[in-house]
Amino acid sequence: MSAFNLRTAVTSLTPLLESLGQTFGFGATMTGVLGMVPTAAFALFGVVTPAIAHRLGLERTALLAMLLAALGLLARAFVGDVSMLLVTSALALSGMGMGNVVLPPLVKRYFADRIGTVSTMYIAVLQLGTILPALLAVPLAQSAGWRVSLGAWSLLAAAAAMPWIGVLWMERHGRSRQAQALAHAHDCAVVAGDEAPELACTRRVGQVWRSPVAWGLTLMFGMTSLTTYSMFTWLPKLLTEAGGTRALGGSMVALFSTMGLLSALLLPALAVRIANPFPLVLGCVLAYLGAFAGLLTAPMAAPLLWVALLGLGPSTFPLSLTLINLRTRTPDGSSRLSGFVQGVGYSLSCLGPLLFGWLHEISHGWSWPFAFLAFCLLVLAWGGWMASRPRMLEDTW
């Protein structure tokens, strides 16, 4: 339930940005700012959440994450200007950024004997929470208004908070067999004074930023996120300017996310069987380039094909997450590499939606924005080449 809520604030908003721009009187620049808020929040809370979780504990931090998401999503339905839209979106995304960090170690804590199965479920449900808001945003807005369309998702975030309240209550007060088993699982993982051992600071034996493995993964992850969130933000407007409806824009964002679900389920299993997965990176770059060419020259000729190709490109996202474990020897190395890749990678990606929109505004076309993304793909390929070479972080830091 928590995983479902990690992207709803993003894809429930982007299909409505054009109509909200008319309502609140903002243009391409503010659209780009709204598009960069998710990656900025994910970068910031990728850095600060370990300290929060170390103090509060994983379960309480997960509860806080869902409450912040619910509050931000609900408040966003009552905004009266674009500044409050920005603030409430940031509030919701702060909770989702926390969830990004704490849910994987919670899987490890409570499902240590089923990590593969539960992780696959986690990725699949996260993608489902990306797809459905994009698919339903415009129909909900047309039938009940944009406020209902934006605010309805707060109910799911609030519902996801309830099980964490139950977990915390059962661990303290439960007397049933299930409660005792839950408390035992927690006690096995937690020692006195350390509520979140997976996120605790450990003795440093190397510097992640010195490693080409870390920078390669960071560039691949960051450029993938930059391109993905640029498309989340601007794909609906591109299609409506080409003659499509707003409903088409929303459904194409949903298709874009659906292709990400397929790659998230297939790429990790494929990556572990290949010593050097750089050919997979090149395949993703070629898919991106084919999609860019189609969307630039004939967007309405075959939008399903262009967006399906576009959705294959971000397969480098699950590949990056898989390589974090494949390119490290220890859990400490893995957690430190993950923090570096997500913190720096999301920071690099923040300017993507803003620059894409600014280039569109000054050029009054889409050629310059796509040229910018094509340059980012070169950086992605370079990072993929460094990350894919079969060597370990601990040998290079």
UniProtKB/TrEMBL annotation:
InterPro entries for this protein: MFS, MFS_Cyanate_Porter, MFS_dom, MFS_trans_sf
Keywords, ordered alphabetically: Membrane, Transmembrane, Transmembrane helix
- Where would you find the membrane-spanning parts of this chain? 24-49, 61-79, 85-103, 115-138, 150-170, 213-235, 247-271, 278-298, 304-326, 338-360, 366-387
Quote the Gene3D superfamilies the UniProt record gives: MFS general substrate transporter like domains (1.20.1250.20)
Please tell me whether the keyword Hydrolase is annotated for this protein: no
Q: Which domain of life is it from?
A: Bacteria
The record's section on PROSITE patterns has: MFS
Major facilitator superfamily (MFS) profile domain sequence ranges: 1-392
Keyword Transmembrane helix assigned to the entry: answer is: yes
Identify the PANTHER family for this entry: 2-NITROIMIDAZOLE TRANSPORTER (PTHR23523:SF2), PTHR23523
Please give the name of this protein: MFS transporter
